[in-house]
Structures are given as structure tokens and as C-alpha cells.
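S1.2 Input.
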Amino acid sequence: MYTELFFDDYRLFGREGTHRVYGTPVLLSEYFDPLFSTDYFSPWVFMRGDSFIMLYMGTRRSDGKCALLAASSRDGVRFEPLYGPDGRNVVMPLMDAWEPVTVIEDVNARAEEKYKLILTKVDRERMRAFAEVYASPDLLSWKLFLSEIPGWQCEPVGGAFYNTKRDCYTILHRPTWGNRSAGYCETRDFIHYSDYELCLHQDALDGALDELYGMSAFEYAGTVVGFPMMYTRNAPSRKTKYESGSIVPQLAYSWDGHHFLRSLRSPFLPDDGEGMSLSWLSQARALPNGDVILYGAYTPEAHGEAFRSHQNGRIRVYRLRKDGFIALKTEDDATVITREFLYRGGDIRVNLSAEHATMAVVDTCGEDAAQRVWGTDETAPGFDHVDCLPFSGDSTCWTPRFKQKTLDSLAGRILILEIKYRNGALYSVSGDMEPLGNTQSARFRKTGSL
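S1.3 Output.
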């Protein structure tokens, strides 16, 4: 199954009457710890049995001391503190200058080491930062797994995901202490790690004085979706960028989990209307229906002040519609034309909302097409827009049907899809198909194979 998400126009031949916008994450709940403020980058949520466990970093409101804490939920949306036998929800007290980078489930590990927690620690005497790895069978009891990751000098604000294309875990983190950018290393056992590689950095299209504070990411529909945390709205200073500014997540994407591209240069989460604030996105998970649940911490204070006040932080949970990261939106009539793909049969599903929508199909393997490098751009007989049963409404899986013919009759051929819609938004197209380039298509038409 291939899903075309419209992060860019690389897989399109045409796009008219549309503009690219973010989808809209909907706030579902807020979690407020009665004793600890959640101003820092977290949380991480995992399903255990018929419930969910959430780990998060908090600073005690009374004295600012840090700890790793736990909460539980039946639905993964609304959480309550998970108190232990001692009446506390503290999982691991953290000393000064410790912060979690990420927590991840290690599916290849022994049961007693199923979960891995990466912590950074700062040695202020030698001005050095390093990372330790802890392991746990249940997210609640942790033991030291690796005393120091070789070569790491990183700070927190990172992420981890299993890279299915490379059969390993990718750990996102900063390159060195104080260097605000995003890179990665890889591991299969959380003992041996590859060399660090930079994968994303602020650039000239960002706002004045903006910095990339770090990035989390997860795999979704064959794509790695990243959430760069942009440190923005900084006031000019002769010292370090710390006292002012906001954190706003944006959107990035990667086809291989190594090379990331930036999407729109605007905040991905809805505007909270509170001015200077810190909004983190630390984790995302896909539901069985394809919807996405997003987790992140929030505080209304600016950078610097937020880490001193220890009062107003809370954790937010959002929902995003299936494939709803980016939409090609229109208020009038729009046309979107895909590039070629090898269609193997079955339904093609379109995720969109529209007053009126139809689809036409170009069969580039038409008569004498093998003699032409570019094939043909003529609509396949019986598959024009007038042959398509029109759609109106909002659906994550509109399945185009035609009056006289079925798409299965074109199985094994190279197709181009043209979608026309009015007053709506197009999110994705998916089906049993393989995207091709022009030369690949020409080779298939001439030889019958890829």
C-alpha cells in the first residue's frame, strides 16, 4: 500500500487552484500535575495491557527540583497521576542538570529491558554533557543499562523511532551541548551507535534569530514525519539566547529517516492566543483508523522565565485526522495531477473534503505507447471525469467509481490520476501502487518489467 502525502509537489505533474496548508490538530485534553509543573520537553506514552502509561518530566512547584513522573489513562487521552505504594507518582528523581531525551519501546530486547530511557547529564565542572541509557520492564522501575553513550555530548529535546527501511532505531538529538540543531545516530541494541550526522538546521527562510531547538519524529505511512521545535521571537542580546522567545513546533518530513526537508515555516499547532509560550511535541502515535494522537508539554511563559517559575506547565493531547498533516486547499475549482505509478489493482482511496469531486485516469500504456518515451496523456476510455460518479462531503477513504468500468481492468498498467474538486481540501491518495519516474515508466512500457 502506497500513500501520497502532499508535503511537496515532487510526485505531481500538475496543481492548479490550490494552496498548501497544515491540517488542524484538535486539542482533546490537558493534564495538570498538582505538585509538578511540566514546562520541559515531554511526555512519552505507551500502551500496557488495557491502559496507557505516560512518563513526563516535572519540576516541583515548591522548590524547582526535577523528577521523572508517571500518569495512567484508559483511553490514552485523559490521564491521572499514577501513585505508587509510597503515595507518590515519582518514577525517578532527577538531580540538577538531568533531562530525558526520549523514551522508546525496544521490540527486540528482553522483557526486563523492553523500554529504553535516554538521559542527558551535565558536568558543570568540566563543562561537559553526556548521555546515559536506562532500561525497564514496565516503565516504572528503571536500572542503568549503559553508563555513557560513546561520543555523545548532547542536550535533550530529541526523539527516537524504529526505521523500518534500515532495520534499526534512529535517535534524534543535538550534536553538542549548546548547539541548537537536529541530527541523528543509529543503533540496533542501544549499546553500539553510529557516528552522528546532522539532518536539519535553521536556514535563511526562518525568522530573524530563529534556532532549531531539536526535533522529534515518528514513522507514518512510509514517511518519517518530524516536528522541529523552533526557538523564535528572540530579543536581540549580547549574551546567549535564553531570557526571551517561544518554542513552536513546525513540520518536517523524510523518505529515509536520514535526510529531512522542512514544510511550511509556520507553527503546526493552533495558536494558543497567549503570546510568548513554550509548546513542545514530544511524541505521536497512529490509531488503528489512521488518526494521529499528538503529545506535548505547554507553558504560557517565555523561554527562561518558564524554567524559573515552575508553576503553569501542563501536558496537552491533540488529535489529527488520518493523513492530515498537509492539505491542498481551495475555495474554488482545483485540479491535482499525480505523476505515474504502477497500479496493481484494487481500490484507490482519496482523503478529502469537497463540495464536488471527480477523478479521471490516464493509462500511459495505451496504443503504441511503448514507442514513446513519455507514453500518452490521453484519458483511458470510460475513465474521464464525466464517467466518474461524483463525490461531495468529507471522507478519509473516498473510493472513486466509474459508470461503466472498474479500475481493476487497468491493473498492471502505468496510470496517472487527475482529481478535480471544488471548495475543499485534499489530504492524500493511496492504493496498491508503486510511484515511478519517467524513465522507469518508459522502461516498463518497452520491456514489461521494472
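S1.4 Remarks. The chain has two domains: 2-21+326-447, 26-320.
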